[in-house]
Target: Transposase
Amino acid sequence: MANDRADPRFFPPQVALYLVKIACERPDMMERSLSQWDCTELARQVITASIVGSISASTVRRILNSNKLKPWRHHLWLSPKAPRDEAFVKSIKEISSLYTRPLEENEMVLCVDEKTNLQPRPRKAKTLPALPDLPVRLEHEYERKGAVNLFAAFDTRTGKVWGLTYERKRQEEFIDFLEYLDKEIPSYITTMSLILSY
Model:
């Protein structure tokens, strides 16, 4: 159907209907190799489908705006998953209770995590304090000292942190860190460790 009207700003309702229909479909459903529609591609599709002889991207945008459609925008979302089994729910409740339940005197909860590729960069000259009419002065030059990896344990009740840095991040270093914790924490303490990402 060609647009034979004298005023090119007006299109028959079939144009808007078709635009709304395809804007609500993914381009790959129309055999287009696009991840999402934009106004230029929608105009091209309307012309290819012989709905109109010509239509501008701005007209497409106006028609879509009147229908509150913006197919070029997207939001990430998490699709619903299958319900968790009882064992999973029970283990989550047990772990959550470690953060909230009262602990005995001989109990401690540690969160253990890592921070990789830390780059210590000491400045070449010391920082000078502020003086009247002068701000704090920082040396802009620094020395590269390579990268280190930090293993840390956080006591969820007291806020105390134990940490060690290593040149490498392997199983050996992690085991060494756990042995360090074993020496640092008195043996009468029952430690429950939540290892977050190793």
